[in-house]
Structures are given as structure tokens and as C-alpha cells.
UniProtKB/TrEMBL annotation, chain A:
Species whose genome carries this gene: Nicrophorus vespilloides
Pfam (any one): Tmrp11_N
SUPFAM superfamilies, alphabetized: S-adenosyl-L-methionine-dependent methyltransferases
Localization per Swiss-Prot or TrEMBL: Cytoplasm
Name of the protein in question: tRNA (guanine(10)-N(2))-methyltransferase TRMT11
Superkingdom in the source lineage: Eukaryota
Domain Ribosomal RNA large subunit methyltransferase K/L-like methyltransferase as annotated: residue spans: 188-317
Automatic annotation (TrEMBL), chain B:
Origin species: Nicrophorus vespilloides
InterPro entries from the UniProt entry: Trm112, Trm112-like
Source species, domain of life: Eukaryota
SUPFAM superfamilies cross-referenced by the UniProt entry: Trm112p-like
Protein name: Multifunctional methyltransferase subunit TRM112-like protein
The entry's keywords: Signal
Family to which this protein belongs: Belongs to the TRM112 family.
Keyword Signal: yes
Gene name, Swiss-Prot/TrEMBL: LOC108565478
Length: 467, 156
């Protein structure tokens, strides 16, 4: 039974299920920790039964994970409630004792997954554990030992079985970063835009990038800096650049429906200050990232970014179709540079090439890539000889489209990769080509719906008055 | 229908809006650029420019703010710097503060030295000014602390 202390239950939030393996894997390699499965998890189940070499390891992974709710030291698990109690009655006391001693306050928490119970029913479930060799007092707030009893009723909330499929019991070790998601929520963020990344996915990206204290992190399509907030939260020192002058100076139209004009003090730095992260803020610059302007030998520890897909944010770079264009002296002072289309495939091609050149060896590039679900093939993803695709998982957006979170690691020195061919498929072109209705059609359909609603409201008003 | 709303009802809507708990930031806190960033920027992509480094600095005013010291970051960022360029930039804006011209070998354990570098890199900010291309003299203005490195279409 010596191994009993080394078994852990990882309990996930039932959200972004596809990203679990990615995230935990990234954390395992980042901290150089090994984890073994006691039982291979199926896709949807919210728990993994695993082994760690030490409690320290389990703690490290859990406390840095965005998708994990908690980790418990697994004392027992069974297919039936009775089975679990049988098992717990036989559980060696010397393993429990240190946590249930006289000087240790404790509580038992009940969690039921996919089936609701009243408080009284939950208390009844706790009462059964009377046989535990506890000596200390019960304390509901911040006890020394928190024991967790979990009943798992499958993943279909409409038809939960009479009795649970699985029951678990153990000692709480650590919680994940679910609270942080709320703390960094876009709802209360000072400066946001139309395409700001939500807190959970930003944190997830920072974990994919394995950001740690003192890292130099770049977002070349920074926008409102939502990814940099997450990176700074984990100790990264952040730089951002964007071609959109008005966005970086927070002079674009506000994205909040309740806000008429942008505040005077909005900006990427204001976001950092909101969360007391300003010491991790370096600078943001207005620049066209298709034009290299960083010092050649500058190396970043990580690059995390969400490039514009050309749908909600346009893909543009500086340029003109005019031949021999020259801006006259008179106009120079107030001239706004002309922009040309920057095709999505070129955006990603350039991004990978830039990362291959400016990432340290082993450094990671984490970015989203939009795709068509119908004709997705891994072969169409952006590729570069110096960059190894480490992880790739999908977030579905619409019936036909999704985006994939791609994690690349630099595995070879950048050395004359200029003859690499660009084979990336262009999403934007196809998006407009294949969608079911054009923008015009959609607009008129929505207008019709609104008109109908107005008419009905009028009618209701009239009948109400006549009553 | 919309006209039927009484002002009192309007007030109710407004008061139900969730207030953002962001702390109000004084504008002057936001408007600055760091010497660290200057150390990394070039104008190499301009038409006719070969090196474009280091950029000149025309400073209108600078500001010094205290920032938490993180020795790990400083000792990791030093190898990424062009030391002589940093030294010269600090000299230009009068913030040298006996920073050595040559980088010593064992700086990682020299806390006093790391603190000096920390000061120059993170605590000194250029509030207003411009960066200048060393070859063409093209100026890149720093507006509200954000350098504008955008080129015009006839310069790329």
C-alpha cells in the first residue's frame, strides 16, 4: 500500500475539454515532471487518475493549470458507494492519521457531478464516513485537512443514472487557477476591443508557451494586450506591437455597448496596472510586423499571438500599388501610410519565419489558426523546418469554421530558410466563398426580423390600450 | 415607445451598469518608452538603409519611476542587450549613474550592478521625443510613450 500516497485524482472543469492534454503536457515538460495514468481517461470524463512521484509535483502542476479545478490525493475509488466505504474501512490508518490528528481541523466536502442533491442529502452522505479515525475538530472554513467525496454520474445531465458510475474519496492537495479566470475577466477589464481574447484562453496560451518568471515575451499582433496580461501574470516581461495606431492609443470606438467614448486613460499599460502587473510591462509599439524592425540577434523566450483572420479584424500591411510613389514634403507631416491586403497565408508564413529567427532555442510560438472544418487536414497547417508543431487542438466557432491553437517549439537554428515555400491555405477567401449567405443577405434578413418584432410590439401596445 | 421613457427610468438603467473596478490611472503614467526597447529597435527595413542601428534619441523629457526589482529578469535580459548601445543611450539622456562602460564577467551575483541595470532599463522612461534613423535621419516620433515605427508606403 506504499503506493497509495502517490495516486492522485485530477478533477477538471468541464470546459475546453480538447485542450486538457495539451495543457497538462506543456506543464509537465515545463516543470520536468513525469505523470503516469492509472487508467486511460476517455474524452469527456472530468477526471484523470494519475500517479506523480511526489505531492510537490502534483501541487506544481495543479497550481499552474487553468483547466484543472483541483487535485486530490486519492485514498479510494470504486464503482459503487458501498464498495468505496468497504475500501475506506480497510484503508491503513497510519496513512490517514497525520491528517486527522487531534491538532488537525478538518472537513468533508461532497461533490456530485451531473446530478443535483439537496444540502441535507449531502450531509447524509458525509455522515456515512463516521468510521474515519478522526480526532481533530470539524472546521468548515480553512481547515487543516479537506477531504473530498466525489460522485460521478456520467456526462449526460438529462439522464443521470440512479447510482453513480464512479465514486472517489481523498485529501485535497491543491486547486487550479479557476479563480484567476474570474479575476482577469474581460467584463471588468479596463481596455478591451472587439477581438480581445478571454481570460481563460489567454492563460491557457501562456501555459502552452511555458512562460515563467523573467521571460521576454512578444505579441506581434497585440491589440488590447489580452494575451500579454496572461503572460505577465506568470512572470513574463511583455512587449507588443500592432499596426493599428488608433487601437494602441485607445482611440478606436469602444467595444462595450454601455460606453460612448473611450476613457482618457485606456491602453495596454492601463490593463497591466489594473492587475498590478505594470512592473512586467515593457512597451508597445506601432509597427507593421511584415517589416522587420527588431535587432537581428534579439531573442525572445516566447511569442504568443492571435493574428487577424481578415474577418473581424482586417489583415493589412504597409504598401501601395502605385509605381514610384513619393509623398510630397507638404503632406509628410500628416500622412497616414497606405495599406494593402496582407493575405492570411502570408501573415502565418511570416510569423513562423519571424519566430524561427527570433525565438531562443526551445522557445515556443503559440498562436491561433482559423480553418474550415470540412476540409481540414493537418498537412495544411503552417510549417517551418525550424519549428516543430508540439500541440494542436480545436475550438469550434461555427458549423463550418473553427480555430486551432497551435504550439510550435524551435528545434533548429535559423539559417537561411528563405527558400521555404508557402503552402498555407487561405481561410478568408474561402470563408466568404462558402458561407451560406452573403453579408447583404444576412443584413436584410436581420432587418426583416427587427421590423417584424417592431410591428408585433406595436400591435401588443394597441391591444393593451384598447382593453 | 422609446420617447415614453421617463428620465427616472433612464437613471435606473445607468445605475445598473456594472462599474469597472479598474483603478483610475493618471495619463502621465502611461506615456513613456523604455531604454530597453530602444536597445532592440532598428530601422533596417527602410529603403536604402543597411544597418539602421542604433537609433538616435532626441529626448524632450524623461521620467523616473520606481519599479519592483527582479534580479532574475535583469540577469537574463543582459545577454540579450547590446551593452555599448545601452551605455551610450543612458549617457545621452543623463542617466548613466556610474554604470560601467564594459560589462563585467560575473554580473549575475553582483546585486548592486543588477540594480543599476534595472534602473536604466525599467525605471527611466522617455516621455516625449523621437527615435532617429542613423543613416537617413528619418524620425520616428514617440507619441504618448508609444513609438511609431510605421514607415510610409514610399519608404518600404
Amino acid at each position: 500500500m506504499n503506493q497509495a500516497g502517490k495516486r492522485y485524482l485530477l478533477w477538471f472543469a468541464q470546459e475546453h475539454v480538447e485542450f486538457r492534454f495539451q495543457e497538462i503536457n506543456s506543464l509537465l515538460t515545463a516543470f520536468n515532471i513525469t505523470m503516469d495514468f492509472i487508467e486511460k481517461p476517455t474524452d469527456l470524463q472530468p477526471y484523470w487518475m494519475v500517479k506523480f512521484a511526489s505531492e510537490q509535483d502534483a501541487k506544481k502542476i495543479t497550481q499552474r493549470s487553468v483547466l484543472l479545478r483541483s487535485c486530490i490525493e486519492l485514498w479510494g475509488h470504486s464503482n459503487s458507494v458501498d464498495g468505496l466505504h468497504e475500501m475506506m474501512k480497510k484503508f491503513p490508518e497510519h496513512l490517514m492519521e497525520p491528517h486527522l490528528d487531534e491538532d488537525k481541523s478538518f472537513k468533508i466536502e461532497v461533490e456530485t457531478f451531473c446530478k443535483h442533491f439537496t444540502q441535507q442529502e449531502k450531509v447524509d452522505k458525509i455522515e456515512v464516513f463516521e468510521y474515519l479515525p478522526y480526532k481533530g475538530p470539524v472546521k468548515l472554513k480553512d481547515p487543516d485537512t479537506c477531504l473530498q467525496y466525489i460522485e460521478y454520474y456520467g456526462v449526460d445531465p438529462n439522464a443521470p443514472p440512479e447510482s453513480p458510475y464512479r465514486v472517489f474519496f481523498g485529501r485535497w492537495i491543491a486547486s487550479g487557477l479557476r479563480q484567476l479566470i474570474k479575476y482577469l475577466s474581460l467584463k471588468t477589464r479596463k481596455f478591451i476591443g472587439n477581438t480581445s481574447m478571454d481570460a481563460q484562453l489567454s492563460l491557457l496560451m501562456a501555459n502552452q508557451a511555458q512562460i515563467r518568471n523573467g521571460d521576454l515575451v512578444l505579441d506581434p499582433f497585440v491589440g488590447t494586450g489580452s494575451l500579454l496580461v496572461a503572460a505577465a501574470q506568470f512572470g513574463g516581461y511583455v512587449l507588443g506591437s500592432d499596426i493599428d495606431y488608433l487601437m494602441l492609443h485607445a482611440r478606436t470606438r469602444p467595444s462595450r455597448i454601455t460606453q460612448q467614448v473611450r476613457d482618457d486613460d485606456e491602453g495596454v499599460k492601463a490593463n497591466m496596472m489594473q492587475y498590478n502587473l505594470e512592473k512586467h510591462y515593457l512597451d508597445v509599439l506601432v509597427n507593421d510586423c511584415s517589416i522587420p524592425f527588431w535587432r537581428d540577434n534579439l531573442m525572445f523566450d516566447a511569442i504568443i499571438t492571435d493574428p487577424p483572420y481578415g474577418i473581424r479584424e482586417s489583415t493589412e500591411k504597409i504598401g501601395t500599388s502605385k509605381v514610384n510613389c513619393k509623398i510630397s514634403e507638404d503632406h509628410l507631416k500628416t500622412h497616414i501610410p497606405a495599406k494593402v491586403e496582407y493575405s492570411l497565408s502570408t501573415v502565418y508564413f511570416d510569423l513562423l519565419n519571424f519566430s524561427a529567427k527570433h525565438l531562443k532555442m526551445g522557445g515556443r510560438l503559440v498562436c491561433w489558426f482559423p480553418i474550415f472544418r470540412d476540409d481540414y487536414s493537418e498537412d495544411d497547417l503552417p510549417r517551418h523546418p525550424c519549428m516543430k508543431l508540439e500541440a494542436n487542438s480545436e475550438q469550434v466557432l461555427t458549423k463550418h469554421t473553427s480555430r486551432r491553437l497551435l504550439t510550435y517549439e524551435k528545434i533548429a537554428e535559423y539559417d537561411n530558410c528563405e527558400d521555404v515555400e508557402n503552402t498555407i491555405k487561405d481561410f478568408r477567401y474561402k470563408y466568404y466563398e462558402t458561407r451560406e449567405e452573403s453579408r447583404q443577405e444576412r443584413r436584410s434578413r436581420k432587418a426583416e426580423l427587427r421590423a417584424k418584432g417592431r410591428l408585433e410590439a406595436e400591435r401588443r401596445k394597441v391591444t393593451k390600450l384598447s382593453e | 415607445m422609446r420617447l415614453g421613457l421617463t428620465p427616472a427610468f433612464l437613471v435606473k438603467i445607468v445605475s445598473s451598469v456594472v462599474l469597472i473596478p479598474a483603478r483610475s490611472v493618471h495619463k502621465s503614467e502611461l506615456v513613456k518608452m523604455k531604454l530597453l526597447t530602444h536597445n532592440m529597435l532598428t530601422s533596417k527595413s527602410m529603403k536604402g538603409v543597411t544597418v539602421g542601428y542604433p537609433l538616435g534619441i532626441n529626448v524632450v523629457d524623461i521620467k523616473v519611476t520606481e519599479v519592483d526589482f527582479n534580479p532574475e529578469f535583469i540577469s537574463r535580459i543582459i545577454p540579450k542587450l547590446d551593452w555599448s548601445v545601452l551605455w551610450k543611450a543612458a549617457d545621452t539622456i543623463g542617466q548613466l549613474d556610474d554604470l560601467p562602460k564594459e560589462l563585467s564577467q560575473e554580473y549575475e551575483n553582483d546585486n548592486d550592478f543588477l540594480k543599476k541595470v534595472h534602473h536604466v532599463l525599467l525605471e527611466v522612461d522617455i516621455v516625449n521625443g523621437e527615435l532617429v534613423c542613423p543613416e537617413t535621419g528619418r524620425k520616428f516620433p514617440i507619441n504618448n510613450g508609444i513609438p511609431n515605427m510605421l514607415l510610409n508606403e514610399d519608404e518600404v
